[in-house]
Amino acid sequence: MACDCSAEITDVSQKKLLQTLLAINGLFFVLELMVGWYAESIGLIADSLDMLADAIVYGIAIYAVSRANSIKNNAALLSGYFQLMLATLIGLEVIRRFLDGSEPISELMMIMGFFSLLANAYCLKLIFKHRNGEVHMRASWIFSANDVLANLGVIIGGALVFWLNSRLPDLIIGSVITLLILWGAFHIIRDAKSEIKALNINSETCCSSNSNDH
């Protein structure tokens, strides 16, 4: 029996990459959440929770590596639903802060946003070659790309808070991040369902072909 060494090498490479992404996102989730809470910035808090979601997504993807395509598809689908739930929670927090009020510290928003941008840009570089790969890796690419956009939004929001002396830009950025997460979630759910449907069709075709042969 021939050894599928190339597949094994690819699986090991994917797992190491996802573990690196998981570690970076997990670390910056903690840092950004603490800074965001102290700075009273919903933009930073939303971005930190986005990183938490990504860390969990990468953990799910690590589980899916080297497993059957059906498991990879379901892992991507689960990731999408998790992101959908998170976006809902962040949206509710944006509404709460809009009603209760907050005093975001613009300097901390920009500094933390900048360091998070560097971290996520590095993650994006690492996963770039997998952007058209299997569905669980495509999901990881989309989430990493969204993170970079969210970080840029936090930096811009911090600058606007400072310039306008208003909390409104922070609330807007928190809302934009929510929409970004929603877009990523719907995209991955649609992609995963498409893969699951195609896999089922192929399976039925194969079974039908085998029955006819007999």
From TrEMBL:
It holds the Pfam family Cation_efflux. Residues 21-195 form the Cation efflux protein transmembrane domain. The keyword Ion transport applies. It is a multi-pass membrane protein. Its main location: membrane. It is found in: Membrane. Keywords: Ion transport, Membrane, Transmembrane, Transmembrane helix, Transport, Zinc, Zinc transport. The chain crosses the membrane at residues 21-39, 45-65, 77-96, 108-128, 148-165, 171-189. This is Cation transporter. It comes from Thiomicrorhabdus lithotrophica.
